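Supplementary Text 2. Reproducibility record for the structural model of the 98-residue chain.

All settings were left at their defaults, and a single model was retained for analysis rather than an ensemble. We include the record here because the model underlies the residue-level annotations in Supplementary Table 4.
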Amino acid sequence: MEEINFTAKAIAELEEIKKRPITDIVGEISMSNTALFVQKGLHCSEEEAFKAIELYLEKGGDLISLYLTILEKLQKKGFLPKALNIKQLRAKVENLKI
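Retained model, structure tokens:
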């Protein structure tokens, strides 16, 4: 989902909806949070966000990898600290043995 692009206004809207700062919201990995991030990042409707997620999943992605992509986008735009090592977290998730 390379086209996700967050703006300050989108983050403010997300914080207003959730009634919490972005740093608290990102700790909750859920489908509803993921859909809200996708909606704000793609600047689309809720229905379009769910369609985009379903397409991502159909192409072999999973919820956690999508969420990590969202975190990377937020970090790149300066909404999360640069010290947060998302690449290391992604590597750990990819090497999980269940």
